[in-house]
Automatic annotation (TrEMBL):
PANTHER family to which the protein is assigned, alphabetical: TRNA-DIHYDROURIDINE SYNTHASE, TRNA-DIHYDROURIDINE(20A_20B) SYNTHASE [NAD(P)+]-LIKE
Segments crossing the lipid bilayer: none
Protein name in UniProt: tRNA-dihydrouridine synthase
Native organism: Gekko japonicus (Schlegel's Japanese gecko)
Gene field: DUS4L
Family note: Belongs to the dus family.
CDD domains: DUS_like_FMN
Lineage summary: Eukaryota, Metazoa, Chordata, Craniata, Vertebrata
Length: 335
């Protein structure tokens, strides 16, 4: 398969016959946009986290305008993706400008993950294995954070993707939480490294922790224990936080979720969402035909810090895209 298949119109969904061709060919263009190269630049790599319902194509397009270097899709269940045409169509949409892009999968079986990786490999730059989701349903299914206790299973998944996706520049990363006993996390990371993982993202909390302070010291120890790049994640709300965490941990990259929802221009150094960014979101979302709920939720997040209680009372209950656009025009002069 060639780059031609990337020339579908904005927001197009890839036809199923393209998915099913499986293995992709390696082309020099892949090398140019390899995410692994980003880590070799020496600059801290700024990453938009995987976020179910939120890190979709329209939002990725927005954050890329504001200095985000690398974007993740929301988590996709690999088994459903491989099995169901409907799941593929609803879960994965991309376009030509959506690079570098990592598709994050929830998986527990190496062959299923490798199949899913082969399907997306012509259209993305890498896949990530979710080893951090602490939600009860995910753990019960054997996905997410319970994988940090199965280092051999993680190794096998990394190896199978490496062996079965032909493009050598295609990345295979993992996103983990930490153990109470940090030595077990170090062991997991070293095993993942031995299996050929491209980089490791560490959300510096254990699977039980929610709002407790992030253990940046643990991320620092992990960074010192492996040679592959390490990405720090957790509680960065401003560019200053990014710089602090970079300094404390020595991490090669930073991954941000809620900070970018609140201010998609954060990586460009803005302290709060600039009006220009809100206008960009309106333009991008309308262009992509973003469903109202998603369009509105993002605006509520972005405007949280810049609107009064009174304004929120009105804005948050608006119930159609046209009502939101009218409100923004009348109150903020947006188009
Ligand atoms: C709305 C939302 C959706 C999320 N979805 C995912 C996901 O699909 N996969 C994943 O690995 N983590 C997911 N996370 C966790 C984040 O990627 C991140 O690890 C966590 O929020 C800590 O980073 P933060 O402090 O920058 O928000 C999600 C978080 C939020 C807030």
């Amino acid at each position: 398969m060639t780059e031609m298949s990337l020339e579908l119109p904005e927001g197009a969904i890839w036809p199923d016959n393209i998915y099913m061709t499986g293995k992709s060919e390696y082309t020099p263009q892949h090398q140019l946009r390899s995410p692994v190269n980003l880590f070799q630049s020496g600059n801290i790599v700024k990453i938009c986290a995987p976020m179910v319902r939120y890190s979709k194509l329209a939002f990725r397009t927005l954050v890329r305008k504001y200095n985000c270097d690398l974007c993740y899709t929301p988590m996709i269940i690999a088994a459903d993706f491989v099995r169901s045409v409907k799941a593929r169509h609803s879960e994965f949409t991309t376009n030509q400008g959506d690079h570098p892009l990592i598709v994050q999968f929830a998986a527990k079986e190496a062959q299923v993950l490798a199949d899913a990786a082969c399907i997306v490999s012509p259209f993305a730059d890498g896949i990530d294995i979710n080893c951090g989701c602490p939600q009860r349903w995910a753990m019960a299914e054997g996905y997410g954070a319970c994988l940090i206790n199965r280092p051999e299973a993680v190794q096998e998944m990394v190896k199978q993707v490496r062996n079965q996706v032909e493009n050598p520049m295609f990345s295979v990363s993992v996103k983990i939480r930490i153990h109470n006993d940090l030595q077990r996390t170090v062991d997991l990371c070293q095993k993942a490294e031995a299996a050929g993982v491209s980089w490791i993202t560490v959300h510096g909390r254990n699977a039980e922790e929610r709002h407790q302070p992030v253990h940046y010291d643990a991320i620092k120890i992990i960074k010192q224990s492996v040679s592959v790049p390490v990405v720090a994640n957790g509680d960065m709300k401003s560019f200053k936080d990014v710089e602090n965490v970079h300094q404390i941990t020595g991490a090669d990259g930073v991954m941000v979720a809620r900070g970018l929802l609140a201010n998609p221009a954060m990586f460009a150094g803005y302290e709060e969402t600039p009006l220009k960014c809100i206008q960009d979101w309106v333009n991008i979302a309308l262009e992509h035909g973003t469903p109202f709920m998603c369009f509105h939720h993002h605006l509520m997040y972005m405007m949280e810090r810049i609107t009064s209680k009174q304004e929120k009372k009105i804005f948050n209950v608006l119930s159609s895209t046209s009502a939101v656009v009218d409100y923004l025009r009348e109150n903020y002069g947006l188009q």
